[in-house]
Protein: Hydroxymethylglutaryl-CoA synthase
Amino acid sequence: MKIGIDKIGFHTPHLYVDMNNLAVARNVEPEKFTIGIGQEKMAVPPITQDPVTLAANAALEILDEEDKEKIDFVIFGTESGIDHSKSAGVYVHHLLGLDSHARTIEVKQACYGATAAIQMAKGHIALNPKSRVLVLGSDIARYGLNTSGEATQGAGAVALVISADPKIMALEDQSAYLTADIMDFWRPIYSDKAFVDGKFSNEQYILFFSKVWEAYKEKTDHGLKDFEAICYHLPYTKMGMKALKTILDEGTEEDKERLSANYKISADYNRNVGNIYTGSLYLSLLSLLEQKEDLEAGSRIGLYSYGSGAVGEFFTGILQPHYREYLHVEQHTKLFSSRTEVTVPEYEEIFEKTLPIDGSSLELDIEKDPANICLAGIKDNMRQYVNKLR
Structure:
């Protein structure tokens, strides 16, 4: 039985800041951001968007009534959780009107969370072939203004329906994974901003990739020749290329050209959104699928997931016949083209607007936010969400 990605959706806030302008404001050469780390635009979330709304908006565009009836498991991968107790997935379950007879949980392991959710979903579908699982990867990356990590911030969510006989990608069984207790990136519960040892994290990202790649080859006897493309978790777009370059010499010149060209395509969406943590790898996959029109069914795609702290995994999927018919290219093209650029001072003002943490209530103006699902405020310590379509 084939199990994999039946549908995939994406959402990002309607605001962004140009990285050239941010570089000038921070007194650094623009090329440091646009070439050095490979970022063009950074999504800026208004206060009316949080990980719950981003995930719900991403799922809203792909779910039909049959999905809502058959989804019996919702798994929300995030490292930007809004509650220490209640799963962010429960809010999304309600906002989307899913069947009440469903399990709903939240999972956490830095940027690896959505991958863990997908692997859990595969096990559920293997036992319940008629079921569907909604996997959500949603985050807002915050490091703070004028910090070393500021240029790698971002916001967005990816939603995936995992099912038997998937229309887009069948996930293969063999994968390789690794865990090590390291402190390359973390966010204590008392902080709304992450801490990162950038140089150490880059080193561990590549080290983990090397180890899981070698383990995967030993398990499968596959090599570069067997891959049409390899997609990476992208905290910034140059990071994945650094990892890819460590193995390119294992292939022919044709392999190098193919994988390098397809990597560039896979990084395009991330280049214009920024880091979305748990959804980053799947945004890279989406960019490849939607923008490389001649990517043939039957192609094997490699997927490298890395979550600081740290857990890494390399796994693969096979593109299914007519998979392009089930993508939402037009919606995503419109999403990107309809975004509004904000100035650096406007971005800084938006960044500093945060929700109260003293128990006070707050009512937010959601009219300026074009998203269908928004955060409308806080009342009695409870977030108030609105689905404008209801």
